[in-house]
Amino acid sequence: MKQGLSLRVSQHLALTPQLQQSIRLLQLSTLELNQEVEQMLVDNPFLELDLDAPAREEFGLAQADTPVRQEDAEAEMAASAFDDAAIGSRVAHKADEQTRADTPDDDPSWEGDGSSALLPDDNEWGGEAGARSNNANGDEDPDAGEMARAPASLQSHLHAQALGLRLSAEDRAALAFLIESLNDDGYLEDSLATLASGLAEDDEEQLEQLVHHFKVALGLLQSLEPIGVGAHNLAECLMLQLQALLRNESDPARTAVLKVALRICERAIDLLARHDLKRMASVCRASVALVSDAMALIARLEPKPGRRFYDVERNIVVPDVVVVKLGRGASAKFQVRLNADVMPQLRVHAIYANALKGHKGGVTDAASYAALQQRLQEARWFIKNIRQRFDTILRVSSAIVERQKNFLEHGALAMRPLVLREIADELGLHESTISRVTTAKYMATPQGTFELKYFFGSGLSTDSGGQASSTAVRALIQQFIAAENKATPLSDQQISQTLKEQGIACARRTVAKYREALRIAPASLRKEI
Length: 529
Fold this sequence. Notes:
four-stranded mixed sheet; 529 residues; extended; alpha+beta; two-stranded antiparallel sheet; 8 strands; 51% helix
C-alpha cells in the first residue's frame, strides 16, 4: 500500500461555546433560567447581580424610575429608625435582659450628624429582618388578619384537631404518622401493613403492635374533618361521607336514598362511572328512581377531601411577557412588554475585572491569567446571551400579537390559524428557534395567561375557501357541549355535523380528539337522568 498526502476542501457547521449557550438559554423556562443564573453566580466570580439597575425601556418597559430626593430618603430612614427605637423600648419593658443582649451598641443616635442613618442597613433585606406590615401604628408584629388569610395545609389542619383528642403516646404518634402519610387529596396510598413494615422491619411482634395502633389511629383519622380523609380509594372516601350524613339524618325518605347510595359505592362503583342505571338498580335491589336520586346525591360529595387545602400559589404561572391594550375602539393597539420581574439584572464585577486588566501577566502565572481571562469572557457572554434571549422572546411575542389581534379582542373563537414557519420567515429565524422560544414561555393577555404555543394551531378548511383555527374549533365544540341538553347530550357525530352546517369541515375522529384534549367525557358519560 502506497502512502501519500492529499488536500480536501470541505465545509461544515461548528457551534461555538457561546452559540451553544445561547441556544440552551433560549429553551429554558423562567424557573430553569433562575436556577442557571444562580449557579453561574456561584461558579463565576466575575459575575454579580446588578441590584441597583432598574427596569429600563430597552427591556420592553416604557417607564423610567423617578429618582428619590435626598431629603425624602433621610426622612424615611429617620422614621424607620424611630419606629425601631420605639419597638425596642416596648420589648425592653417585657424582657430587659434579652433586649440588652440583642441590641447592638452602635444604634443610630438623634444627637449625631445623621450620617449613620444614611448608611445602607445590611439587615434590612436579610433573613433576620422582620417583615414590615402596613399597620398604621408601625408595629412589626404579624397582622392577625394576614395570619388568618394564610392558607393552612391539610396536615396542619388535621394536627390541630388531633390536639383535642385524649390519646396515649403510642396512639398519638400513630395518628401523626398517618396524617403525614396522606397525599394532597387526603388519601392513604399505602396499606397499614405496608406503613408498619417500613418501621418494624423484620420484627413480627413489633409489626403486629404497629398495625394495631395504626388501625386505632385510622379510625380516629377518618372521624376528623374534612370527612372522607384517610380513605384508601374513591369508594371508601364516598362511603365515609355518606355514613356521616346517615348518622345525622332523620327523614325516612332521605335515609332510603342514603342507604342506596352506600350500596352503590360498595357494590357498583364501576357501574356508577358508566351511568348504567338499570344494572345499578338490579345490583342494589332498588328502583331506578331511587338509584337516580342516589346518583345525584353522590355527585354532590367531595371525591378529594384535601382539595380545598391545595397550595394555589405553587400553580401560579409567572408570564414572561405582558400584553397591554392602549386606547379603545378601532384605534386600540396592543403593546407587548417584557416582565421585568423575571429578567435577571447582571453585570461584570468591576473591581475584579479592573484588577485583572491591570495585571501584567508574568511568565510564572501566565496560565492562571489566561484562565481568569477566560472566566471574564464567559461572564460577558452569559450577560449578552441573557439579553439576546429576552430580545428574541419579545420579537416573537410581538409578531404573535400582531397576527392574533382578533383573539385579544374577542377570545378563542376569533383565533386564526398560525404555524411556526410564518413567524420564522418574518423574523429571519429558524423554525426550531421559534419552537424553543414558544416552549414554557407565557404571555399575559386581556383574555388570560397562555403559553406562547397556545397561539399556534393548524387550520381546518371552510366552505368559503379559508381556514379556521383548530383552537377556535375547540372553543366551538366546548360551546356546543355547554349548551346541550344534558338528558340527550351531543355525540361526536352530531357535533361534526353541526360544524359542517357552519361551514367547517371537521371529521368525527377530529371532534373526538379535540373533545379529549378539552377533558370532556363522551356523550354516554355526560348523560343525566
